[in-house]
UniProtKB/TrEMBL annotation, chains A, B:
Binds 1 zinc ion per subunit. This is Fur family transcriptional regulator, zinc uptake regulator. It comes from Rubrimonas cliftonensis. InterPro entries: FUR, Fur_C, WH-like_DNA-bd_sf, WH_DNA-bd_sf. Its cofactor is Zn(2+). It comes from the Bacteria. Signal peptide: none annotated.
Length: 173, 173
DNA sequence: CCTAGTAATGTTATGCTGTAACGGTCAAGG
DNA sequence: CCTTGACCGTTACAGCATAACATTACTAGG
């Protein structure tokens, strides 16, 4: 495949093979560091939810998170438990909400600026997070022309990841 | 205001003053033409739902459409009635789904290519539909670099329209 | 005309997504 | 001690969406 150091971009996790154990540990460590730095509390529940999201680079619905949280605890927590933790993670850039799926994914670019864009594979459910600049640039030019002030941009592309394209080429061009 | 003929782009309805009665009639006429051309049936229910969406350039939730449909008929239709009509309109490019809002808006660019992007005003709920090219270009370059095949892109910016910025400038820069 | 097929609508029931509201727990600080 | 504030636990409900099946309407063929 293409080299990836030639553009200076971060490697796009989600579709590429990588040491996910390290990936997960690094994200968790980063979360702890961020919370210390900002005076936030990464409580047991929040850490557990983040860890659940970090199980893979797929997006999980709130109720799926809730189920796994219940399995991890032995009890059966109610929806607000999951939503509050997810809201905390999203508000602090540790996770993202995928609007197209009404689902949540752990942040794959710890510490980045966080105007991210996402590529969602319909085959395997993997989600890759990429810098949003490319899309945001064109978008903000359009917004300027309109006099519109962008507070937040949702950029989500749905399609087939390299692995899924290789596995079922009938849907290709 | 800024001239709008200097870029060759279509005028961005939704945020600009315009003769909305004509806008609505033209959209309805276009819908009829499209259906005739493609051998589709713009039934009473479908036309009614499209007309409801065309009441303004704001997005409506399915249940709000349902309520208005009930008001227009005198009966109280069930959710699938609205969803089926909305699905038909979306499938044929006569309306669009706004993922961020779980809501639907009439197409404001009849006959266009339909890889549109949307600007959603948090103040007044107006939605402007703009050509998606600007964002799509950067996005597809990223996708190519990843080996990702984009089937559909969701591009939705949330913020303040010119009118709402003027009305409440405290949230400005 | 009658019939069979298809497309759309009507109806029932249910599941997924998200939040309001209130009470309990625990730690920090006067 | 007693307040304050942040978080957690629980109940109840609101909003979004679809599966499944019954019914109606339109259409093509006999
Ligand atoms: Zn990973
Ligand atoms: Zn895939
Ligand atoms: Zn209009
Ligand atoms: Zn506005």
């Amino acid at each position: 495949m293409a080299k990836r150091s030639d553009t200076g971009e971060a490697p796009p996790l989600g579709f590429v093979e990588h040491d996910h154990g390290a990936c997960r540990a690094a994200a968790l460590a980063h979360a702890r560091a961020v919370c210390v730095e900002r005076g936030l509390k990464l409580t047991e529940t929040r850490a557990a939810v983040l860890d659940i999201l970090l199980e893979s680079h797929a997006a999980l619905g709130a109720y799926e998170v809730l189920r796994r949280l219940g399995a991890a605890r032995g009890s059966a927590p109610q929806p607000p438990i999951a939503y509050r933790a997810l809201d905390f993670l999203v508000a602090n850039g540790l996770a993202h909400r995928i609007e197209r799926l009404n689902a949540y994914v752990a942040c794959a670019r710890p510490g980045a600026d966080h105007a991210g864009a996402f590529m969602i594979c319909n085959g395997c459910g993997a989600v890759a997070e990429i810098p949003g600049e490319a899309a945001a640039k064109g978008l903000s030019r359009s917004a300027d022309a309109l006099g519109f002030d962008i507070a937040r941009a949702v950029v989500e592309a749905e399609g087939s990841c390299p692995a899924c394209r290789a596995a079922s080429p009938e849907s290709g061009s």
